[in-house]
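User: Structure please.
Assistant: Input sequence and predicted structure:
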Amino acid sequence: MFRKATFVLLASSLLWGCDNNEVGDVSLGMFTTKDIKIESLDDPQVTGVTCHISSIEADLDFADPSDSSISCRQTGEITPEMIAGIDKSASGEVVFKKSKSILFKTLKIRRIFDEDDQTLIYLSYSTKETQGSYKHAMSTVPLWGTKAYVDPAKDEK
């Protein structure tokens, strides 16, 4: 039983390191097993948006730190059809998630649409409280200058 559990643990930790979205890997020094990993994520629905997420991975720990950073930019066309197909509720929708521990901690990226300001908001957050706080970061992509932009002033007329 112990051997099987050890094998599952080892195999799952190896899979955490296998990520085809990784574009950067920065070592935090010679005497640590922690690295800053940078991943590229194309929004699956709004394909003209790319986000870069940085987070720390601790190779020999059961859980990675909860800190992360996110930066999203328009990297292609954003159409009205793309915006029409997204969740427009106040909580938006999860567009990416990644396990950050063996149990219960996940890094999630959520897209929220601010219709009044014609802006896509991308929120990166950890699902587990750390030191009294849920770690999070945010980035925005304005629709100004895209085919998807709707002038709020015209809607009021």
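Residues 125 and 136 are 4 Å apart (CA to CA).
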